[in-house]
Amino acid sequence: MTRQSAGPNAGADDEGPPAAGRNNGQLNRSMILQTALRIVDRDGVDGLSMRRLSEAVGRDPVMLYRHMPNKAAVLDGVAEMVLAQLSVDSTDPDWGGQLRTVAHNFRQLALKHPNVVPLLVTRPLATPLGQRPPGMLRPLEDVLALLISAGFTAEDALHIYRVLFGYLYGHILNELQEVIERPEETDHVLRLGLHRLAITEFPQLRALAPALASYDGAAELDRFLNLLLPGMTATLTGGDGQPPTAEDTSAAG
Questions:
Q1: Is residue 249 domain-resident?
Q2: What is the dihedral of CA 230, 233, 235, 241, to 10 degrees?
Q3: How does pLDDT run across 146-197, given as a tens digit for each residue?
Q4: What is the pTM of this model?
Q5: Domain limits for position 94
Q6: Could you tell me which residue ranges the HTH tetR-type domain spans (predicted)?
């Protein structure tokens, strides 16, 4: 099933938060999370507090707690809101192409909300699987459906998901790192500040200065996917380049 952006994030980019101290309609979970996301986007996770959030929605903190029991619930909701924007077409017959699309869409989503990335990585780890918000689990469910319908076993589908998203989390955290120290410099070693490293101790790292300075996140992601997708197919299906079929399963039994 193709998922469209919906759920708690609907309209998040179209409406601004209510002015602080002003009652602007009925308070609800969606309003709270949209406002929380804007605070995190602007000031980071550390800039979000229940008091600041209540001021941003123009309500008494007591009213806020009627909808969100604590800051942890708000953080879970923000992560869920962002992940709800990640669409997976589980009916796509080209499972590899669909995973490639999902990977690039996840990267774009993370670059749009860089301050939310730590939540995407850590909040699921802090919550048992069955207690996570539905929107946080939807990408997993849809990727599993995509791969299982393509002929992979459920266990292999789960393995592919873990490998793919494990890489995506690390990839985006690496891409978001600030690597350019002196952008006005034309010498790559100076631009990256690698001149501080002794050439006798770090010759390989210094030699890679041009590649480090010209880092292309999208191209590097494609390079990984070009290794992952054929490799996974070969490893999990016995090397014939196709997912297992019903005949293969029967023969194996």
A1: no
A2: -90
A3: 999 998 999 999 999 999 999 999 999 989 886 777 878 888 888 888 889 9
A4: 0.78
A5: 86-179+215-243
A6: 26-86
